[in-house]
């Protein structure tokens, strides 16, 4: 953390600029006259730019306003050159008045040539994209001063900052009165998720959404508060007090802004059922994609700079992610299932073994009170340790060395989880292995936090918590009655059980057609299912007829004479009948 005092001991001004009676002047040598630039004192104290000294130039000014109060402003020279008015307007709002904009711009330009402290400019929350171990923790820069060649860090004027990433209270107090009082796997898991996001850029994994699904009074809100307390204020949502917990009823653009402004720190989102927008599946994909939508640049032609982020998200709700996706009548894809991980929880998952419900309520009430005044210190300390790793000779690790070190540790921890699964005779599919990798990051997070004395637990505790969480996800994933395999098996059962409602076209045309017919059995044994019948069947899984037909087609069991149509038209009893034609081989297929 940088704690450098930027207030100058002696005014250092560019050539031909001087102060007199608390005002800033420029001396025009050619015309031998003094030009008033500002009626207040303006002193450049810091110049800042990127690692290569060739972009993002900023000047920080120390000002004394008309009331004698101190004002500091960080000015982006690019923005100033494009339009100085917003900057002079901001200064006026601070009680500092610019009388000559032209010479004020010259003052900023000339300040770049002064012998001032050189800072880095942070362009995004979290770790910076230039390969240096600099982390913006809200407004607080985190780096190891003894290992760098610059004197401080300032946020870029355009940087999005999440103000709910903040520190209050001491780490020792948070360990004793928060982390030390949690019981059960669900609250401990939420703290691990809260700490885990800074590891993602080193390991090379994209973020994931961990979702705690359970009925009311199962401890979901307390778990979410504990996760939020890692990086900032964690009051109960809706209480009116400051909190870093968001709600799912945000717009897609609003969610993007939240993600970008809290890059590399875990985002907490409450009440999945409150999402009332359209295309939840798309919003979910956008959240874990790590990149904002492409938009036009308002300053001119072309694309605007894209926001990026890499972080884990903790979500809660009574619905699982899969259930919420199906409410929009779209199928759940495997790619979503290893990025959006639903973990069922119960009230017992927030209690100690043998602890009564009343004792648990009292303990969690005390936890909630403690969370109002203790937050942010654990996340800050975790990042501080990450940026200051040393090798065996006590030399500081650079970015690439840190990547190698943490990737090796990640592989070891993931292998430990795999060995425990194999000992229990559990073999994983490719999708399940991808999901295991997400939980491996949580395991590594906990081991590091215990080693760095951030968490008052043991590594064995962490292992058990993460293994239990993965087991819950795996059971939910495999036993989901609405998985693709279960849906297709359900269609098979339907075709077999409803055989009498399919009229066999090899039988001569009946005198009376049954009113409850659902389709026809064609001469080659295929099933021609009527659209209304398939639509009604699809509703069982939250789908429509088209989506269900696409699932069958993906397994190559849908007969499609016309490749641009899912349905086919067939002449039956001199009538043209349209329906979805399912191959006879489907009835005996294995999924």
Write a structural description.
This is DUF927 domain-containing protein. The chain is α/β, with parallel strands linked by helices. It has three domains: 17-155, no CATH class; 171-292 and 308-479, no CATH class; 484-588, no CATH class. It is built from 19 helices and 22 strands. Helix 5 (185-196) packs parallel to helix 7, helix 5 crosses helix 16 and helix 18 crosses helix 19. The longest helix has 25 residues, at 399-423. Residues 1-9 and 294-304 have low confidence and may be disordered.
Secondary-structure-derived class: alpha/beta
> Into which percentage range does the β-strand content fall?
15-25%
| Total helical elements | 19
Query: Any idea what the shape is?
Result: elongated
Low-confidence stretches: 1-9, 294-304
Number of DSSP strand runs: 22
How widely separated are the two ends? Answer: 55 Å
Portion of residues within helices: 25-40%
How many distinct domains?
3
Mean pLDDT: 89
Largest sheet: 6 strands, mixed
Radius of gyration: 31 Å
